[in-house]
Amino acid sequence: MNHFQGKSLLKESDYTPSEINYLIDFAIHLKALKAQHIPHPYLQGKNIALLFEKTSTRTRSAFTVAANDLGAHPEFLGKNDIQLGKKESVVDTAKVLGSMFDGIEFRGFKQTAVEQLAQYSGVPVWNGLTDTWHPTQMIADFMTLKEHFGHLAGLTLTYVGDGRNNMANSLLVTSAMLGVNVHIGAPQDLQPAAEIVALAKQYAKQAGSAVVITDDPAVAVTGADALYTDVWVSMGEAVDYGQRIKALLPFQINAALVAQTGQADTIIMHCLPAIHDHETEIGAQLGEQYGLAAVEITDDVFNSAQAVIFQEAANRMPAIKAIMAATLGDLFIPDSIFNG
C-alpha cells in the first residue's frame, strides 16, 4: 500500500502534520541514497509535465534532476510553449495533459489554476509555486532545519519582510503544523491575511506551538533559531519600490537584527533569488536608485557562516524527489505509520 498514491500537493494543509514529517524524512533518506550513488528509479517509465508560467532556477532544476534520478522523463512546457490560459483553458489543458503524462508540476500565479489542473487531469499535480502557497519549498526548508538542529518541534522560526506573500503564508502554516514556533515580522499592511493566521493558530493549538504576528522587528526576532526572509516584491507584483523599501528597511536581515535574536547560533535562510549585492541587474539598479548596498539581506549576513541558504537551495531537489516518488511511485507506505 502506498499511503500517498495519486495524491496531489497543492498546499501544505492538503496533508496532515505526520504526512509532512514523513516527506521531510523521506527527502533526507533520498538525499543519502544519492550521496552513496545508490540508484532509486521509483518512477521508471513515467512522464512528467513541467508547466511554468513563472521563470525559475531552483524549481525547474530540482524537478528536472529529481525526475531523471527517479527514472522518469520530464518535459518542460513554458508559457510560450503551450496555449495555457490563452487559447486553451486550464480545464481543457488539464484533460489533455492528464491523458499523456503521469504527473504534472505547475509554477504560476493563480492558486485556482493548480487546483483545476488537479481536479481535471486525473493525475497527481504538484504546486511548484503560486501567489498563495509554496509547498515544495516547505519540504526543503524544514528538511534543512531538521538536518541542522536534529529536530523540529520547539524551534522558533522568524520570517521578516513582506508577510503577505506565498513564502510567509507557507512558513506560517507549516511551522504551526510541525510544532515550530513561528514569528512574522512585517508592517501592519504587509501582514498575512486573517484567514491564514487563523489556520496557523488552529494547527499551533494542536501542536503546542506559538504564533506571533508583529510590526516590531525586535519582538519578531527575539529567540529565533532561524531567521528567514524573501524578496520584498514578488514576481509580477506592481508596486512603488521606493515605498516598499521604506516600509521594510527596518526588517532587513543585517548584523544588527541578527544580534537582536539573543541567540549565538541562529541560522539564516532565504528561498532565493536574493538581492544581497549589486551583482545583478536589479540589485545594481535598486542600489543606485535608492542608495542601498543590499535590499532584504546584507551581503555579510548572506555569506556568513550562519547562513544555510545554499544547503536549503540544494535540498529543493531531494524534497521534490520525495514528493514525486511518494505520490506517483509504487512504494509501500502503510497507513499505520500515520494512524499511530
Automatic annotation (TrEMBL):
A GO BP term here is:
citrulline biosynthetic process
Report the locations given in the UniProt record: Cytoplasm
Q: Which residues bind carbamoyl phosphate?
A: S56, T57, R58, T59, Q83, R107, H134, P135, T136, Q137, C271, L272, R316
The reaction(s) annotated as catalysed by this protein in its Swiss-Prot or TrEMBL entry are: carbamoyl phosphate + L-ornithine = L-citrulline + phosphate + H(+)
Residue intervals of the Aspartate/ornithine carbamoyltransferase Asp/Orn-binding domain: 154-326
Query: Got a GO cellular component term for this one?
Result: cytoplasm
Residue numbers binding L-ornithine: N166, D230, S234, M235
Statement: the UniProt record of this protein carries the keyword Protease: no
Its domain of life reads Bacteria
Write the Enzyme Commission number(s) for this entry.
Answer: 2.1.3.3
The record's GO molecular-function terms, alphabetically, read: amino acid binding; ornithine carbamoyltransferase activity
Predominant location category = cytoplasm
Using the UniProt record, name the top-level EC class of this enzyme in a single word: transferase
Keywords attached to this entry: Cytoplasm, Transferase
Q: Does the keyword Cytoplasm apply?
A: yes
Matches recorded under InterPro entries: Asp/Orn_carbamoyltranf_P-bd, Asp/Orn_carbamoylTrfase, Asp/Orn_carbamoylTrfase_sf, Asp_carbamoyltransf_Asp/Orn-bd, Orn/put_carbamltrans, OTCase_ArgI
Domain Aspartate/ornithine carbamoyltransferase carbamoyl-P binding span(s) in chain numbering: 7-147
Q: Which residues form a coiled coil?
A: none
Family designation: Belongs to the aspartate/ornithine carbamoyltransferase superfamily. OTCase family.
Q: Extract the PANTHER family matched here.
A: ORNITHINE CARBAMOYLTRANSFERASE, CATABOLIC, ORNITHINE CARBAMOYLTRANSFERASE, MITOCHONDRIAL
NCBIfam families noted in UniProt: orni_carb_tr (TIGR00658)
Q: Any idea what this protein is called?
A: Ornithine carbamoyltransferase
What organism is the protein native to? Answer: Lactiplantibacillus fabifermentans T30PCM01
